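Run log, item B.
One chain of 84 residues. Sequence copied directly from the ordering sheet:
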Amino acid sequence: MAKKNKNQQKVEGEFLFGKKNYTIMIIGAAVILIGFALMMGGGSDDPNVFNESIYNFRRIRLAPTIVLIGLAIEIYAIMANPGK
């Protein structure tokens, strides 16, 4: 039983991912935030006036693509081997 407790204590002190993984995760989160920031805006101050800028290229195509790229970076960060 004593050996089992020592092994459990050793496992508790280790991180799940390495420094490389956390760095890539932070980069991926920043890319996702940039994508959401690109989606913002486009509304009209007057509710009776329709603003066409809500359907421009940046909000419809670019921003969702950047968010998906950020999610792919996050998946890579989880799957990357920290030993290499």
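Observations after the first pass:
- The chain has one domain: 17-79.
- The mean pLDDT is 85.
Flagged for discussion on Thursday.
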